[in-house]
Fold this sequence. Notes:
Blueprint: H1 5-9, H2 13-46
Amino acid sequence: MRRNPIKQSMKDPEKRAKMYLLFNGAMIAVTFLIVIGTILFILILTGVIG
């Protein structure tokens, strides 16, 4: 039987909190990158940039 590293780290409350902050930070960063990319795409498509 293989060990699941995510399940193993969820047992320790300190590691669980760190993982929670890491996942939330990653989700926020990805959201900002998607928004910036969409705005740039629209600006390039309309001819404002480039």
